[in-house]
Write the structure tokens for this entry.
Amino acid sequence: MRYAPVILVGRIVRVLARWRKPGGGSAVPGLVVNRLAPGFLSSVLNGFPDGLVIVSGSSGKSTTTKMLVAALRAHGVAVFTNQSTANISQGLTSALLEEVSLSGRIRGDMAVLEMDEGHGALISATLNPRVVALTNVMVDQIDRFHDSDMVVAMLARIANRASGTVVINADDASLTGLADHLDGPAAVARYGVTAEILAQNPRGLGYSVTASERMPPADGILLTTVSGRSASVLIGGASFDLDLPARGVHYAVDALTAIAAARAALGDRFDAATACAAVSTIPPVFGRGEIVTVRGHRVEFVLVQNPASFQLNVDSLEPGLDQVLVAIGSDVRDPSYFWPVDTSGLGRVLIASGSKAHDIALQLAYDGVVVDRIEPDLGRALEDFLALPDPEHGIKTIIFSADSMRRTRAHLGLASNREG
């Protein structure tokens, strides 16, 4: 009960924050509680009977976490997770305050949490995860970290805390190197894609090795085919079909990560068919290929957070879309970060918007994309874009960075988070 007073304070702060800013302020209670009781977060997370599972890496964390939770719940496991996709320490603490009792405990067998690489490394020394699943290392995250070695070092700090299994993408050279030098007691489980899939997606995956081709099929999980929103995987020598939440091989790789992590967390209880069926039910997560209806129009939201996701998403869009809006916001501090992306497949963009509207319009122009209009005011751009009649080909498509995504959803009155 030693945390009861601080839990009460956190809940009061949560009410006040939501009263002052409806739909926002979700991290404020976590900031307050972490300041008052630094040990609260680790105490709760280390208290689940079946342990803690951490999902981290440069990209794919949110979708992977949703899929993993679904797979575990399909096996009858009661799971606590950070449903709002908040993945830094104050966000995690705020998520705990939603369900924790005054005694500092949460009902559930297992916790599955998405963690930002940097914040996860900061708090990893106090955590005792049973399974750590690592998605990838994006070597060009220059807008967040100095270089890829820094990202690898942070992920290694998290992975070395695992007591059971570290799950890695065997096609990512940085992760295979990390796995070869783990200091902790955990075993390593691998998943990967076939050489054919690598050849079909040479621009976007960013993999520099094909270790999956050397993996014994009985040991790893292998992605064998991807077509639109469908995929096939090889698990223990048997093939299973998957439905994906959005188009693109990157979503299929997220599914592989989730299935491999579920197998590591469940052990002998794991059933491949059950896991694949559960993963296939996941809808798009918070802007990642999400299709919403706004003012009578169907609109697809496409979130791009790094060059690899930008490339894969552009390549996965239906060719010849009539109405595309691209909005890059203040979260992309150095717009040259996106210049390696080949955006020529877009063909035409009706509006370039966001605080970096002129920068993204210049890149599009250099790639031969026709940009009809540059409108830095995102609210005005959205109003004009939605006022257009439905396109003759495809649906209205908005490609945005995280900052512009939040501003778009706020302007349109959409929920700030997608839960479930």
